[in-house]
Specification:
There is one protein chain. By secondary structure, the protein is of the alpha+beta class. Helix content is 22%, strand content 19%. The chain has one helix and three strands. The structure holds zinc ion. Zinc ion (ZN) binds next to loops.
Length: 72
């Protein structure tokens, strides 16, 4: 079964988005070019992990990201 998650281009710079796990309990999508990212979503189980990945991908694809340099 495929669990591929489609990520749109970065809403800020059109760069590539990457799903990034941290500490094995939360995940976010980060732009590899400008560092913009979505909010973290936490998970406990493998099932929740997949759901969390889908959730952050959805946030990313909707453009709900935080820019890395809010001063600009
Ligand atoms: Zn970007």
């Amino acid at each position: 079964m495929e669990n591929m998650i489609e990520l749109e281009e970065c809403p800020c710079c059109r760069g590539a988005g990457m799903i990034a796990h941290e500490g094995g309990w939360n995940v976010q999508v980060v732009c590899v070019d400008c560092g913009s990212c979505t909010a973290y979503v936490e998970y406990d189980t493998e099932e929740e992990k997949l759901e969390a990945e889908r959730t952050v991908a959805r946030l990313w694809n909707m453009g709900k990201v935080v820019k890395s340099n809010p001063g600009e």
